[in-house]
Design brief:
- This protein has 150 residues and is α+β, with helices and mostly antiparallel strands.
- It has a single domain, classed as predicted glycosyltransferase like domains (Thrombin, subunit H).
- It contains two helices and eight strands; from the N terminus they run ααββββββββ.
- It has a six-stranded antiparallel barrel with strand order 3-4-5-8-7-6.
- The longest helix has 15 residues.
- The two termini are 19 Å apart.
């Protein structure tokens, strides 16, 4: 399912190259290679009983628009938010403002478009993996597909 903001491409070829160049510029060559290999996101034990992140995060403050998409492809809701940090595997979206104050109880995806900064024009289809309430709603998102209009 494409992000539905008028993207060309399917996350492959030239589009992937552009996205990988953005990741390399922001995080360095190792992270770009990790993104290209689709390293599973999450936490990894650091040998001390603690955890460390698999992907470096970059602190940002980027405006986004997004859609909440149900499994059948229907748009459930729309909104705006701020991406507060980003990595090659995902992003933290906070300060979420929804058109109607509701999220589905069934599984859903987030299709977002970054409106400014280094990542302006990048669109992502994401799986929500964490819900945050501080004081507004936030979502930890795992990228399933990244694309950019070239």
């Amino acid at each position: 399912m494409p992000p539905e903001f008028g993207l060309k491409g399917n996350g492959m070829g030239e589009t992937t190259q552009v996205v990988n160049e953005l990741v390399e510029e922001a995080f360095g060559q190792d992270e770009a290679e990790d993104a290209a290999e689709e390293t599973p996101p999450g936490m990894d034990t650091d040998g001390t009983g603690g955890h460390r992140r698999l992907h470096k995060r970059r602190t940002v403050d980027l405006s986004v628009i997004f859609k909440v998409i149900l499994e059948d492809g229907k748009i459930f809701n729309r909104g705006t938010a701020k991406v507060k940090n980003i990595s090659s595997a995902g992003a933290l979206m906070e300060d979420i403002e929804l058109a109607s104050d509701a999220l589905p109880v069934s599984p859903f995806k987030i299709s977002m478009k970054i409106l400014e900064g280094l990542y302006e024009g990048v669109e992502a289809l994401c799986e929500p993996i964490r819900f945050i309430f501080r004081p507004k709603l936030g979502l930890g998102l795992r990228f399933e597909m990244l694309s950019v209009q070239v």
